[in-house]
Amino acid sequence: MTAPPEVKYTSTSLSLSSLITCFISCFVIVSCLLEGLCVTSKANALSQSATLSLDPLLWDHVVDLNEDFRILWKIINQDITFEIQARTLGYDRHIKRNGDPEPIVDPSQDYILMWGYENRTHTVLRFRRKLDTCDPAHDIAITNDTMRLLFMYNERDPPHGTVKPGHLPNPGGSFRPYRPIVLTQRPHIQFKHEEYVRILELRNEDVELPGADETLIWCKTFKLDDMKRKHHLIRYEPIYDSPASVHNLQHITLRECHGMHQELEEMAREQGRQCMGARDIPLACNAIVASWSRGSNSFTFPDETGYPMESRQAKYYLMETHYNNLQPDLTQLHANRQMADNSGLKIYFTHVLRRHDAGVLSIGMDPNWRHIIPPGQSQVISEGHCIEDCTAYAFPMDGIHIFAVMMRTHLIGKEIKLRQVCIAAARAAT
C-alpha cells in the first residue's frame, strides 16, 4: 500500500560499555560500516563532551540516536565520511545476514579509519568509505533508499579486547531500536531565526503510547490566534517529548481546516481523539500544510516561498499523528517511565511575506477499504494518476514550480516511484 506523496510547489548516560554500529536495509540485516578494531589513544586533556573533534568538519547531518550516541556524516562525490561520538568505550564489528547476533570481524576492510580517540567517558571515531564499496558479501551500498541504522551497546567490555566469537557480553540482549534515516538526503538549509519570525508549538496532550506492534492514529485540533493579516509559514520541525517518542513517532500530518464549524470548535477544546484516517477527519480539513515522516528532520522553505497562513481563511489546524513502535527499547521505556506522549510539530511563521505562495499537492494512492490485496501474491502494484482535467482546474495558467517531494508508504509498502510525464499534442493538419 502507498499513501499519496506530498509534492511541495510554488506558483511565478551509560558506564563503560561495548560499541557496535551496524546498518540495516530492506528489513534485513545485511552488513555494517565498521569492521575491525579501532585505533584509540588516551586524551584525558580533551573535554569530556562528545561534541568536540580534533579536526572539526562542516557536517551535513547530525543525528542523536539516543542521549548517549551521536552520528555525523558528510558526502563528497562518491565518498561518505562518518563520525561517531558515543558515551562508551569499546570496539566495532558487523553482523551477518540470517545469523545469530554475535558480531564478527569483516575479512574485507573497505573503509579508511581517519582517527579515533577515547577520553574518560566517550569514544570518538571518524572513518570514510565509498557509497558503494563493491563488496556485496559484507557491505551494503548506500543509496537514496531509507536505511535502517542499528546500534548496540552493553555495560561491559569483552575480556581483554578479544575478538573471538562468543566473548561479547550478551549481544542478543544489547540491541537497541533502529532509526530509519536517508543518509543521502541533501544538507539542511541553514536557517537564520530572524527577530520577526514567530514560533508556534503544536503538541499532543498526554497520548498513551501504544504497546509493541500496535498502531495508534491520534488527531488533535488547534484553534489559531486571530491573525489580522496574512503570514507565511517558512519552516517546521518535529518535537520529541522524550527518547521514547523517537521510536514511537511514524509520521505527522498537519491539516488546514477552512470555515467555521461547531464540530471544529468542540474538537479544539478536546484533549484529542483516536482517528482512523479520512473517515474520521472533517471534510473541512482536507488541505495539507506540513508533513513529517520518520527518518527526516526539519523542513525549511526556499527563501522566495512560504505557505500562506491567515485566520480568516483557516482558523483551525488538525494534527494527525501516527504512532507505531516496531522495536521498543524496554530498557529506556522503563528507565524514563514514559507512558504518555506530548510530541508534535514546531512551526515558524512571519508577517514579512515572501514572493510566492506555496502549496501541497497530494498524488498517488490513498489506501482504503476498497484497496484489496489478493492473497498469495508475491507482488502487487498500486498506481494513482493525476489527470489533465484535475491539473487544468487546480493549477494557475503560468504553471507551478516543484521544489520538494516527500514519498511515503505505509508499513506494507516496499517501493514507491513518482513520475512526471509530459506529452506534446500535435495539431491535426487541415
From TrEMBL:
Q: Which GO terms describe its cellular component?
A: extracellular space; secretory granule membrane
Q: Which GO terms describe its molecular function?
A: copper ion binding; dopamine beta-monooxygenase activity
Gene Ontology terms describing biological process: dopamine catabolic process; norepinephrine biosynthetic process; octopamine biosynthetic process
What is the organism field in this record? Glossina austeni (Savannah tsetse fly)
- Transmembrane stretches, start-end: 12-34
Which residue range or ranges hold the Copper type II ascorbate-dependent monooxygenase N-terminal domain? Answer: 201-327
Which InterPro entries does this UniProt record tie to the protein? Cu2_ascorb_mOase-like_C, Cu2_ascorb_mOase_N, Cu2_ascorb_mOase_N_sf, Cu2_monoox_C, DBH-like, DOH_DOMON, DOMON_domain, PHM/PNGase_F_dom_sf
What UniProt keywords apply to this chain's record, in alphabetical order?
Disulfide bond, Glycoprotein, Membrane, Transmembrane, Transmembrane helix
The protein's superkingdom reads Eukaryota
Q: Which residues form the DOMON domain?
A: 97-153
One Pfam family from the record: DOMON
Q: What positions does the domain Copper type II ascorbate-dependent monooxygenase C-terminal occupy?
A: 357-421
Family, according to the entry, reads as follows: Belongs to the copper type II ascorbate-dependent monooxygenase family.
Q: Has keyword Transmembrane?
A: yes
Name of the protein in its database record: DOMON domain-containing protein
